[in-house]
Structures are given as C-alpha cells and as structure tokens.
Amino acid sequence: MLVLFDIDDTLIDHSTAVRAGVAALHAEVRPATPLAAFHAAWVDAMKEHFPKFLRGDLTYDEQRRARLRQTIDARLTDAEADALFPVYFRAYEAGWSLFPDVLACLESLAGHSLGIISNGNSSEQRAKLARTGITDRFDVIHISDECGHAKPAAEIFHRACRSSDVSVRDAIYVGDLYEIDAVGARQAGLHGVWLNRGAAAGHGRMPPMIGGLSELLSFLESLPP
Predict the structure, then answer these.
(1) Phi-psi label, residue 85: left if phi above 0, alpha if psi -120 to 50, beta otherwise
(2) Deepest in the core among 51, 64, 118, 144, taking most CB within 10 A?
(3) Do 87 and 134 reside in the same domain of the chain?
C-alpha cells in the first residue's frame, strides 16, 4: 500500500507556527488592532490570496505582499512588504515542529511505501520536512509548484501513484482539509482519509475519518486485501 500525507497541520503543526509568526509581526508593526483580531485578519488574507498563487494568478512573492497589505496597510510598497515578511517568516519557521503522533505513525508504517503530496512553495515545503528530520521517510514527494497541479486536482494524486507504480486503488491519502484532501483524493480514486485533529463537527462529511495519526494503522489493517 502507498500511504501519502499532507504536510501542514497533518505532519507539521502549521497553525501553531503561524501564530508565532503573526505575534512577531504584530509586535513589529504595533497596530491598533489587538493580536487576536490581527491573527484572524492574517488567516483570512492567507485563505484569500494563497489559492491565487496555487492557481497561478499571483507569484509566491505577490501573494505574500497581498497578505501583508490586507492585514496591515493597503498602501505598503513592494519594498516595504518585502522587508516586513521576514519578520513573520523567521518566527513561523522557528515554530515548525512535528505533531507528537507523527514519528510513531511513520514507524508503524515501515512495511508500506510512504509519500507526500502538498500544495505550496517547493523550497519551503521541503525545508519543513528537512528541518523536522523526516525527509528520508518518504519514497516520493510531490509539491504543487513543481508539478503544475494543486490539490484537489486529480492529476497531483495520479502523478504520485504513477511515480510509485501503484494503482490508485492501492493508495491512501491523509490530510486535515476535508474537501481539498479527503474528497479530492477520493475523487481521484484513492482512499481519502480526513484527519480531524480538532474534533470538528463531521455533519455531512463522509468517512473515513481519524482523530489522530495513531489511528491510521488500524484503518489500513481494516481495508480489504
């Protein structure tokens, strides 16, 4: 079986790292907006502009600037935005860490082929794997800006399976975003598993669902041969 994983908020605690980055940025610019509201605005800006990068409507740097302008000041010049973003990114990068269940999960899957499918900037996503020491655990790594397709497009899932010479029926994909990860993988023909770490309401969401990676091996063992 080929077991494929998302990175952010699946293997690596992206949300906590974002909070650290936002706190550093808030301390730097000292806006009138309280930190909680500033953080919410940053997350909203990321949700709005990051998909534009994935679609090719903005470059990676352009979406960074757009997020800063939306959160801080629409009048920021490119140079001002480019000078501010490292304040956020240094703290965000320092916060990269694995969830506590990751290493035990990967160890338990030693008899399977493992891989990564992630949306994002290749150098950044690969740096996350390297800094947390897990790059060598994976036989295949597919990042959207390397292959020209982003989840939930079927092609990025199919490319990972083809590169491993595995049928989609013999592959599972695990990710924290129900529509993009679980549904996207299922529509591509894989077993799409929703990782619901926060125990979000599952109304209207079809299984399989796991609450943590410690449950993944049991799910694999429940699959028909």
Answers:
(1) alpha
(2) 118
(3) no
Q: Are residues 211 and 133 in the same domain?
A: yes
Would you tell me the crossing angle of helices 78-94 and 60-71 to the nearest 10 degrees?
A: 90
List, for residues 116-164, the tens digit of each pLDDT value. Answer: 999 999 999 999 999 999 999 999 999 999 999 999 999 999 999 999 9
Q: How far apart are the first and last CA of the chain?
A: 10
The 3-state DSSP class for residue 16 equals helix
Do both 205 and 107 map to the same domain? yes
CATH code for the domain of 206: 3.40.50.1000
Residues 38 and 46: beta-carbon distance below 8 Å: no
The tokens for 122 are 């290749």
Chain-centroid distance, C-alpha 23? 21
- What Rg value do the Cα atoms of the chain yield, rounded? 18
